[in-house]
Amino acid sequence: MTKHHAVELVPCDPQWPQAFERIRDRLLALLPQALSIDHIGSTSIPGMTAKPLIDIDIVLPGLGHIEGATRVLLAEGYEPRGNRYDDEVWAFLSRGSVPAERVYLCPSGNGTHRNRLAFRDYLIAHPQAAADYAALKSRLAAEFRMDGDRYTAHKREFVNAIVARALTGDG
């Protein structure tokens, strides 16, 4: 039985970049070993409709750092959301904060992290691709309003195509 959460998309909030800066400063103080703390996902793309959730990748020096960083996040009230993407990525959710935060721990050199940055940077550089993605998300949100898993699954094809284009330097 999967949990069904409504897919809620909101217009781009101009405060999202500032919110990320504030969160990053706090996370860096908690996890000084982090190599980078990156704003990813739709809230990192100017003008993009998004779930009101700041997505953040925290890159750690290696797998040996995941356990300690996990303890820090749990102590700060983040909920563990499990290992994701069949890759070395661990997700955490902070519902209490405004905006809410979804934080991912991953080791240096992680493929999922590389793909997310490639996707973000490509959409920032290609407004038409970003507009296509926004339109796709709106359509899927209407179709799968109560099924976040299927909403995400149907986005994947578009995301994968953009990542492939970005990584091959095509277009």
UniProtKB/TrEMBL annotation:
InterPro entries for the chain: GrpB/CoaE, NT_sf
SUPFAM superfamilies from the UniProt entry: Nucleotidyltransferase
PANTHER family xref list: GRPB DOMAIN PROTEIN (AFU_ORTHOLOGUE AFUA_1G01530) (PTHR34822), GRPB FAMILY PROTEIN (PTHR34822:SF1)
Protein name (Swiss-Prot/TrEMBL): GrpB family protein
Organism encoding this protein: Rhizobium leguminosarum
